[in-house]
TrEMBL record:
Designated name of the protein: Ascorbate-specific PTS system EIIA component
PROSITE patterns registered for this protein in UniProt: PTS_EIIA_TYPE_2 (PS51094)
InterPro entries: Ascorbate-PTS_EIIA_comp, PTrfase/Anion_transptr, PTS_EIIA_type-2_dom
Gene3D superfamilies linked: Mannitol-specific EII, Chain A
PANTHER family noted in UniProt: ASCORBATE-SPECIFIC PTS SYSTEM EIIA COMPONENT
Keyword Nuclease: no
Summary of the function given for this chain in its UniProt record: The phosphoenolpyruvate-dependent sugar phosphotransferase system (sugar PTS), a major carbohydrate active transport system, catalyzes the phosphorylation of incoming sugar substrates concomitantly with their translocation across the cell membrane. The enzyme II UlaABC PTS system is involved in ascorbate transport.
Main location: cytoplasm
Sorted UniProt keywords: Cytoplasm, Kinase, Phosphoprotein, Phosphotransferase system, Sugar transport, Transferase, Transport
Residue ranges annotated for the PTS EIIA type-2 domain, each copy included: 4-142
UniProt keyword GTP-binding present: no
Subcellular location: Cytoplasm
Length: 142
């Protein structure tokens, strides 16, 4: 199911990002361009991290920015950004894989999260995602 949402147009590979805010903007760009979310969704994700800290960093190297459905989600979607150079958050946590989740309600994304948790349970797969350079490599991992 992850492959259904993480199509080539929803995945990006970049050398670096100025900071974590820019990384979230870059990661969410495909969702905005394809009208899965409104631009205010991106602003809200950034504001949430400023307010609550880097709770989006679920594992070393892996962040999952998201906000509430009412913050501008139009339909269920995922986008992914892999940075060669990780960005640092205020508390010293770092991430170079940003998987943006756009959930239009409280239930439709649960099967996606279940599949994602199986990937994230493997430290080897997380490491491989963090060093992936192409879409084909990434799809083989997930």
């Amino acid at each position: 199911m992850l492959e259904k949402y993480l199509t080539a147009e929803m995945v990006q590979f970049k050398a670096d990002s100025e900071n974590w805010q820019e990384a979230i903007k870059l990661a969410a760009e495909p969702l905005v361009q394809h009208h899965f979310v409104e631009p205010k969704y991106v602003d809200t994700m950034i504001e949430n991290v400023k307010q609550f800290g880097p709770y989006i960093v679920l594992l070393p190297k892996f962040a999952m920015p998201h906000a509430r459905p009412e913050d501008g989600v139009n339909k269920l979607g995922l986008s992914l950004l892999v940075l060669e150079k990780a960005v640092e958050f205020a508390d010293g946590k770092i991430a170079n894989v940003f998987l943006v989740l756009a959930a239009p309600d409280k239930d439709s994304h649960l099967s996606l999260l279940s599949e994602l948790s199986a990937v994230l349970a493997s430290e080897e797969k997380v490491e491989a995602m963090a060093s992936a350079k192409t879409y084909q490599e990434l799809i083989k991992i997930i």
